[in-house]
Amino acid sequence: MNDFVKAMSAAASGMNAQGFRLRVVSENVANTDTPGYHRKTVSFGNVFDNEVGANRVTVGGIKLDESPVEERYDPSNPMANEAGYVEASNVNLMLEMSDGREANRSYEANLATFQQARQMYSSLLDLLKR
Amino acid sequence: MDINAFNAANTYGAAQKLLTPERQSAGVTAPKISDESGFNPEKLVSELSNAVGKSENAATAYMAGRADPHTVVEALASAELAVETAVTLRNKVVEAYQELMRMPV
Predict the structure, then answer these.
(1) Taking burial as the number of CB atoms within 10 A of a residue's CB, which of A36, A114, A125, B103 is the most buried?
(2) Domain total for chain B?
(3) Which chain B residue's Cα is nearest to A10?
(4) Is pLDDT of B12 > 60?
(5) Nearest to A8 among B47, B77, B89 (CB)
(6) Which neighbouring-strand residues pair with A42?
(7) Are A20 and A45 in contact (CB under 8 A)?
(8) Confidence check: pLDDT of A69 > 60
(9) Can you give the pTM of this predicted structure?
(10) Which range marks the domain in which residue A98 is found?
């Protein structure tokens, strides 16, 4: 395995991780109005791939954001509890939007390194073709 | 399409066997092609066969819905580069041979 292939492997793992992150973000956004929904957060981990010989990124796990859910006072709502409060989710759309944007930017960065590694190796081979 | 067309890895594997030094039985000692300088054609061929085999596995797994697209793109890109390397080196070797053949004796 040469270093260009390792770079491409690491970039592909990064793209995969950012894709997963975007999935979690869209799940949070989709569940904004779900009563009692706690938003999910993703953590990443570094793992050394022995087969490739490169440090790749993996999804460490999904955790629930344990902050309290938003409660709205609405006694006429059929979902209201005895005190007259309706549970909403603890999803902050502003936070999710910036998280999604960050996933997008990080994905683009990984894509750029992937293309860069491929292009560098191709130009190296072009040197032999002349 | 013939499913055997996907089995290019087998052919590369056969080519790999040809390069293993088992020709001593014919009384001919195989020339030692790898040295300390790091150039190792056997390793190159085995890496090519590995990369192509991996890309085929990834493509079939993706078609069956078992692999993510990033793995497929990565495997296909590395197989493309490996094949390109092999073809470029082969062309160079053939070119050198033809240059020798054109030499007036």
Answers:
(1) A114
(2) 1
(3) B74
(4) yes
(5) B77
(6) A62
(7) no
(8) yes
(9) 0.74
(10) 3-129
